[in-house]
Amino acid sequence: MPAALEWPAALPPEDRERSPHTGLARAHWEAIADGLLAGAQRFATPRRALLHLPGGRPSRHGVVSDGLEGFARTFLLAAFRLAGAGGHAPGDLAARYAEGLAAGSEPGHAESWPEITPFSQPMVEAASIAIALHETRRWIWDALSDRVRENTVSWLSGSLGKLHAPNNWLLFRVVVSRFLASVGAAHRPDDLVRDLDLVESMYRRDGWYSDGPGRNYDHYVGWAMHLYPLLWLRMGGAQDDPARAERFRGRTRRFLSDFSHLFGADGAPLLQGRSCIYRFAAAAAPWAGALLDATPLAPGETRRLASGALRYFLAHGAVRDGVLTMGWHDEFVAMAQSYSGPSSPYWASKAFLGLLLAPDHPAWTAREEPLPVERGDFVRALPAPGWLAAGTRVDGIVRVYNHGSDHFPIFPGTHEEASDPLPDDAGYRKLAYSTATAPTTGQDADRRDVDAQVALASADGRRSRRARIHPLAAVDRFAASCFYPGELAVVEGRVFPVWLERVETVSIARGATEIRIHHAATFGERRLVDGGFAVANRGVVPEFESGEDWCLVRSRDGLVSASIGLLGFEAGGAERFVGQSALGSHAVAPVLVSSARVPAEAVYVSLHVLTRSPDFDPERARREIVSIDVTGRQVRISCSDDERFFLQLVAAESIDETLGPLALEGPVRFARISPDGGAFVLREGA
User: Fold this and answer.
1) Which pLDDT does position 524 carry in this prediction?
2) pTM score > 0.70 for this model?
3) Does the residue 583 lie in any domain?
4) What is the tally of structural domains in the chain?
């Protein structure tokens, strides 16, 4: 049974017949939308053009920009609620937001909105206003005076021709331009086409975009790179460019087939990347897919995913006194980027896109269907982001082993108190993320960078940074990457890359366990440090115990994170963090340290387990690995159920060998043979 919802007002009775997993139906979504809108409107300025929400701290853009953000993002929620109810929603939404439009767009008014300038936050908020105006055209836009419409067009037009971030920001101008076109205003159609072309240049494969140049894979892929093209399509883009519209639909279908695997059975999305304070905005792309014929998901699975995410956050204190806070569960400002302010969490309004579907649409009427992790255990390789996703039905946890998404380099302003010339972020650099844990965040956590991470440690305790990830593979049950600890070496305040050291890591997914194989090459006096998932509690330190080469941490609610050394480790211990986890005030991560300084090159093997098993035993987990045979850079691993793995590190030599009954010929990089007869071989260059 899911946790009880924390909501200040009475909600309709749960509908366990139609929604056996979450209990939520359309009426619950409407009631929650009404509550969020009523809670936020208490903080509107007299003419309602700005909403100065409490809590958190101001963004770097200033309080007026934050006030605009409060208007724009709640306007999006109001638009979905109003349009979904045929214009008959409680709260006099049309009049309230029309009044705010009139004041905010009026030059010189006491509540006027900031001008849209290059790289400015108002450019982001203009997109929400444009979408909201499109969806409420009959009730708001058509009823505005000519003066207010002219002022609104003039303000929105400030987006045109302005420099902006080379990422999802392209799409803000796309939807603004499309709205301007729909009302007969000048909109620079050539720029619109070029912006769409640039977005398409960021498409990689299998439905995945990068959020800008590089390897920027996170929730922006869903709630921006897929969402806005589908909204452009809905706003008339399908008529402008039918071929492009169909490409967008097809890519979203493919993306959602992967994305649905990244939610836990409790509804939690993967906690990875930036802007995670947007919380249930993760449900936006699945709703958009259902709305615009761009989904492979059954209607009942779409609603189960979205309602699960909504319920998860409301049950964990995301709303305080009727207002969304800056955090994941309750308020945790440390995880918010400097561009975020008190109104930023209302990007979560996108999750209410499903209200645009008619009440009798199958996404609302079909019986909820289970998520992939509820249907059974899975391992799913995601080559585009370089991820290996592993879900286990017994505890409903999804783990993602990250060998490709680094968002390198992090743009200025996406990292708090950045001291490095090329800062990185805990939301990207870790080896592993999950739906049940959070990466530690903050200056001390960044300095130590030990949870779900590998590093080389010098004699004085300094640890290397896995800031730039070089992906090698993500296929079958394997994912691999390397990093160069000296790639971001700083000499006299400037980056001076040194490639003398290299660490390659291979993750093998096996149920709740990751078999982690490292190849380290170094010229210095270094030890290898290998960390597992950090587990958090509120108020008290999680329990932990350790042995010669293992450590186990257990949270108050039974979540276990364990790290077990199999080859090359002599010390197991725990590192504690206070006030540095989005999931609780106290966090602990299990850590392994190599038995001696790293020689010229060496191989290390460990197990990292994340489970809710009440009787987890690290020695029993160790016994599941029957043998490890390392010959040079070749590694053979045999498991107690007779599953076997073979891999060659750094580069694959041509071989002529066997793995049980499986013939291995040529430059074999990875191979697996399983008890059910399943087999896999990857050859170098294949």
Assistant:
1) 81
2) yes
3) yes
4) 3
